[in-house]
Design a protein that fits this description.
Blueprint: H1 12-59, H2 66-87, H3 93-121
Helix pairs in contact: 1-2
């Protein structure tokens, strides 16, 4: 009896299955990174609120001592660092809504003006 020859490459189905598994692993890693970033943003927001409240309370003092002024500066620096961290948040629709619609509006006007100029020239 003759044994069938083994192909040197795995069948196409195996390649697709491996590709799918690799893509699935990549999606899982991306989701884990997104979840971690979300948790970091939530922690930073809580810390920012706490620092702002502490800053408010300390600034209400009638006679700030040098220690209080130093603490106020330190809190202000921490708030600035947190703002930088939070600015790198994922975009929200509210933050890009206006530029998006302006691009659509003026891009559309450009296309219409181009059609008019082309029809006039042609």
């Amino acid at each position: 009896m003759k044994q069938p020859q083994k192909p040197s490459e795995p069948p196409e189905e195996d390649n697709q299955e491996l590709d799918f598994e690799q893509e699935l692993l990549e999606v899982e890693r991306s989701l884990a990174a997104l979840r971690e970033r979300y948790q970091q943003v939530q922690r930073d927001l809580r810390q920012q609120k706490q620092l702002q409240y502490k800053l408010y309370k300390l600034s209400q003092d009638k006679k700030p001592t040098p220690e209080i002024e130093a603490e106020l500066r330190q809190i202000q620096q921490q708030l600035e660092v947190l703002e930088v961290c939070l600015e790198s948040q994922l975009f929200s629709w509210r933050s890009i809504k206006e530029p998006f619609w302006q691009a659509i509006r003026f891009g559309g006007m450009g296309v219409i003006i181009g059609w008019i100029l082309k029809s006039c020239a042609g």
